[in-house]
Input
Amino acid sequence: MNPLSLLMDSGVWGLIICVVGLLNLLIILVQIPLIRRVNLLPLAWAGVIAVVFCGMLGTVAGLMMGFDAMASASPDTKQMLMAAAASIAMSATALGLMIATVEVILVGMVSCFMGNLRHRESSGA
Output
């Protein structure tokens, strides 16, 4: 199989999104015990953005594959091919947005906790 066609596969992008999402979740979970010593939240925010971009790239790759398949298809099947390609391609964006939404909530919660902790430490309470 051609490496370029493998990169164009929406399923591969779905796997990439899940791996990036899990790595980012690991960063968020590591941040909690290290809350007083190190701030990994900027890295976690970058991970959220990377998940969204991977989803968008998966969508573009899936649509490109769909258009490529349509170019050589008979006129009877073009409509069906486009609908199937769009459906598969949009699943990459949906997966990326779902994972990013959960991670935004988690990063926000950890960020608030860190802010409250720093406020209590600075006020001497």
Summary: The longest helix spans residues 78-123. The mean pLDDT is 79.
